[in-house]
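Quick one, T. Sequence first:
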Amino acid sequence: MFRYRNTFSLPLFSNAMRETVLRILTIDEKNLLHLMLEDAKSGYRAKIILLKDEGYTVPEIRKITNHHDNNIRKWVHRFNEKGIDGIISKKHDHKQYKFDDNIEKKIIDITSSNPRSFGLGFSTWSLRVLAGFLIYDLKMVDKISHSEIRNILLKHGIKWMKSKTVLSNKRSNDPEYILKKSTLNR
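Structure tokens:
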């Protein structure tokens, strides 16, 4: 493997940030960027590129646009790599799967049951574990996210809360009770 040698040295801690460089814009790109200024979603990105083209630095662009330096650099780099396509807002193709009432009822029934009744080694569900159980163990659905499960539960009036292990102050018959309680209270 070929390795480059340092032909110059930079200080380890420098306040000077390496300048973000914008490639030379074509006339067509400038015209498109000016048209994009009207777009609510991609307009601010076009403004960043046009300001950078006019010679403004990243901190100056930050003061004008009120966007973080890293965000400004990201859009300049994307524009350098992909041109106009790199800064246009694109719609994502993720479509939420619609579950029928029968599947929603089964999900609610499973959620309200103890996981031990399914042969699992724990007594409370988390939404992520429940999603995995529905997909991989029961093969009830091809895919479902924990937020989709939460939405199904909310639709049916069930508010999901994070589970919390609580050990009471009463004396337990478990020989490891004191050890378990002390590790939870740390």
